[in-house]
Design a protein that fits this description.
two-stranded antiparallel ribbon; 36% helix; 176 residues; 5% strand
Amino acid sequence: NRAMDFMREAGGQPWCLHLSYIKPHWPYIAPNPYRDMYGPSQVIPANRQAHEQDSPHPVVAAFMNHEESQNFQRDEVRDGVIPAYMALVKQIDDHMGRLMQFLQEQGRLDDTLIVVTSDHGDYLGDHWLGEKELFMEESARVPMIVYDPDAAADATRGATDDRLVEAIDVLPTCLD
């Protein structure tokens, strides 16, 4: 809501907005109506193999022994937390939908560059880990979606790219 207020207040003036959503993040508590949207039957199995615990690098072993990793190694924890995590993602998706609708109603989708990304993913039990440390796919590979209304972007519109993007480059690139 505050982001939409900010855009209204800016009127026709150029603006730049960094909108940061804290969720999904612990505590993993989803409000209604999201709370009961997902259940344990929708939790996919953790991406982990038994051999990963056999002789891990000492740094990985230390993280595997953290409390959050120990907790997410238990299926009953994952079955309780991941549905709430999924609900929080759905909540953000709905808020982003409201924002896109607002931009469209204000006639600003034609002149607004939008970049959606994240600072990290979460293991949630993958590789016997609980949070975000280290550089495995689950924590390092985050989405980056760019909506560029400029006609110069038409040649690559709708394209996907699996190459690594360094977040440090995002702001200077957008400013350019």
